[in-house]
Design a protein that fits this description.
The complex is a heterodimer of chains A (273) and B (416). Chain A is an all-alpha fold. Helix content of chain A is 67%, strand content 1%. Chain B starts with a strand and ends in a 32-residue tail after the last strand. The radius of gyration of chain B is 29 Å and the shape is elongated. The chains are: A mainly alpha (273), B alpha/beta (416). Chains A and B meet through β1, α1, α5 and α12 of A and β1, α2, β4, β5 and α3 of B.
């Protein structure tokens, strides 16, 4: 028996057999991703082409910028250099931006049925992953056009993609959790990702960052990802080991903070939606 | 704990919103430059549920009644695991499935079929289960070709049918139902009710919130009454419904009491008070269905009244005049002098049906037709009791079902 003290917290226990919980979670995730992808481009004239257009437009913008400012690119054609960075970066920004309101847009479901709430930001990330693969097709086409030799290091790609997905999910659930209670976090997201872009070697190479700042700079987990993509795709090399390891470490630090916070907050989503 | 208890609630309290330490509230008050109430300690939001204790056994069907804001939906939400309890303990044995306003999770751009797959996944079905159920659901919703059209083209009834079609085809140990019977036409409602009955017979535990007391009475065997977050009555469904109606009538009575009094007064008479009394003369606050009662008005006449004429009207909560009596017509002819009197009207046959009532009283001079006093709402009272009398008048009714003409074999049913 519990005494109704001020610090006591309520307890909810469901002792039903949790048979095939993961299969159900998978089905739900799949259904949500299918819904997100199929409904996103319905009633838009360009449809799925938007998945290609977004990084392309950004690439063209940065190439115009390079016409005025001298940006080194480690001896790689700049158009390729910037696009190889923009593909994972666009994924990151879009995934984080999609996570933020994912709880609010699914309010009607969350208010009524108990689900692992992580499924909504996760579905947003997964749906963005679809766009990522679409733009990867263009990237592959460009690699062939520029006759860039790729080798065994391509095997790093799955690891990089998983890492990039986990980073986006971690940052995304933190924003989704906090943003459900205070919209300010969602309004702040574009500025956050904008600032983050300048702290990531997307339009410039890591080599331009002064040596003494580099160890702090590499605490940004996206550094290892973006540089990793470039090494693997354009330089036929493994990801820079220091940046990559720091990226993995920082990713788990962020996840270890973001997930418990999200869990704690998620019990009260239904109260404020 | 006994084997077949499926829901066990101990000392459950619920306050909406994220529980935060007090300093956060103080801080946010400072930011919004509100004056912090220093004597106040603790959270400032009200409790939606207060110290609720309840045990529900396997196969029980429980109707939850209560006025708006009594905490019915909050209770279902906590049981569903949608929102966390603030204090106390909730234990559930078995798969729980909330059938709460189902068309909510629908996505307008997707077709009915796509939405069914999505809803079924949301409700916890695996893909194999969805594939197996899809034909049943398609049949149940009766949407035909509309099933493959975008949901945004649907009428609201079709939307409801889609949601309900998924919900009733899911098997679960505990089913929570909140106001879902109102969807669709009569035929569909009957089908839904039949399905709920089927679930009941298959041994599912059902918790039901509905404003339709008829539905509750039909489906539920047990009933609980919530009022301001507290469980104030628990028993059979009929007992809970009666307790609920009594509660409503009493509150209506309270509202009638607070209504602005419309009074015409002269210096020729003073009214001191009025009361309701029983056969033994004791004061009543509430009348049982069919119980004889009297109305007594305490007044003083300040002049000689040769032909006094008193009138009493009894109005129900809707303002309909249910009873109207004039003393002179009923044979009261005595004159009055400058003295204090008790005017009494006895109603040996109480035909008022359950509900809240108010009394209008007037005193006139039948010689000059002058009104001395007229008070609208001099008294208010409630008639309560078992049985769900509807309408204005209560009383027995004897039914008969007479075979008129034996029909031939092949014309015994009216075709659809």
């Amino acid at each position: 028996m519990q005494k109704a003290g001020l610090l006591n917290r309520g307890e909810y226990v469901n002792v039903s057999p949790k048979s095939r919980r993961w299969a159900r979670f998978g089905t739900l995730l799949y259904a949500l991703v299918v819904r997100d992808i199929t409904s996103r481009y319905r009633r838009s004239a360009l449809g799925i082409w938007w998945a290609f257009l977004q990084p392309l437009i950004l690439m063209l913008l940065f190439n115009m910028l390079r016409g005025f400012v001298n940006i080194p690119s480690d001896g790689i054609p700049y158009i390729l250099f910037s696009f190889a960075g923009l593909v994972p970066w666009t994924f990151f920004t879009n995934a984080v931006a999609a996570c933020g309101p994912s709880i609010t847009t699914n309010a009607e479901v969350i208010k009524k049925i108990a689900l692992p709430r992580e499924v909504f930001p996760l579905a947003s990330v997964a749906a963005t992953l679809f766009d990522f693969f679409m733009s990867s097709i263009i990237l592959a086409g460009m690699l062939i056009w520029f006759k860039i030799p790729v080798g065994i290091h391509l095997l790093w790609l799955p690891a990089l993609i998983v890492l990039m997905t986990i980073i986006s999910f971690s940052v995304g659930i933190l924003l989704a959790g906090l943003g459900t209670f205070r919209k300010d976090f969602i309004f702040a997201t574009p500025f956050l990702t904008q600032a983050w872009l300048f702290a990531t070697p997307v339009i410039y190479p890591l080599s331009t960052v002064p040596e003494q700042w580099r160890s702090i700079y590499m605490l940004n987990p996206m550094v290892g990802v973006v540089e990793g993509f470039r090494n693997v795709l354009l330089k036929s090399a493994a990801p820079p080991s220091e940046a990559f390891l720091l990226s993995v470490l920082m990713t788990f630090v962020i996840l270890a903070i973001a997930w418990p916070v999200f869990r704690k907050l998620s019990g009260y989503f239904a109260d404020v939606l | 704990m006994s084997e077949d208890v499926v829901i066990k609630i101990e000392g459950l309290w619920k306050r909406y919103g994220l529980p935060l330490p007090e300093f956060v509230h103080t801080l946010s008050d400072l930011i919004r430059s509100k004056k912090t109430n220093s004597t106040y300690n603790g959270d400032r939001r009200p409790m939606a549920l207060r110290d609720l204790n309840l045990e529900i056994r396997r196969g029980e069907t429980v109707g939850i009644v209560g006025r708006n804001g009594a905490g019915k939906s909050t209770l279902l939400k906590i049981l569903a695991g949608v929102t966390a309890p603030t204090r106390g303990r909730v234990e559930i044995h078995g798969r729980i499935f909330p059938m709460i306003e189902l068309n909510a999770g629908l996505h307008m751009e997707l077709t009915g079929r796509e939405n069914v797959r999505l809803l079924a996944a949301v409700m916890g079905l695996s893909r194999q289960e969805i594939d197996a159920k899809l034909p049943d659901i398609e049949d149940f919703t009766e949407l035909g070709e509309w099933f493959d059209k975008p949901v945004r083209m649907y009428s609201s009834g079709m939307l409801g049918r889609l949601g309900f079609g998924v919900a009733v085809n899911i098997e679960s140990d505990v089913v929570l139902i909140d106001e879902t019977f109102a969807v669709g036409d009569l035929k569909f409602q009957n089908k839904s009710l039949a399905r709920v009955k089927e679930m009941r017979e298959s041994g599912a535990t059902i918790l039901l919130v509905s404003h339709s007391l008829e539905t509750l009475q039909f489906v539920a065997k047990r009933g609980i009454l919530l009022e301001q977050g507290q469980l104030i009555s628990s028993g059979t469904a009929l007992e809970a419904i009666n307790a609920y109606e009594t509660l409503v009538f009493r509150s209506e009575q309270g509202r009638l009491e607070h209504r602005v009094r419309n009074r015409i007064t002269t210096k020729e008479a003073n009214i001191f008070g009025a009361r309701l009394y029983a056969e033994d003369g004791s004061t009543l606050t509430e009348i049982q269905t069919g119980q004889p009662f009297g109305i007594e008005v305490d007044l003083r006449l300040n002049r000689l009244l040769e032909k006094p004429m008193f009138s009493l009207g009894i109005l129900n909560a809707a303002g309909i005049l249910c009873k109207w009596n004039i003393s002179a017509e009923d044979g009261l002819m005595e004159p009055g002098t400058c003295n204090r009197y008790l005017v009494r009207a006895w109603y040996p046959e109480n035909r008022l049906s359950n509900g809240a009532y108010e009394v209008h009283f007037a005193a006139r001079d039948n010689a000059s037709f002058e009104t001395l006093e007229r008070v609208a709402g001099i008294l208010s009272f409630a008639v309560t009791g078992p049985g769900r009398a509807r309408g204005i008048v209560s009383g027995k009714c004897q039914w008969e079902f007479i075979l008129q003409d034996a029909c031939s074999e092949n014309s015994d049913s009216i075709s659809d």
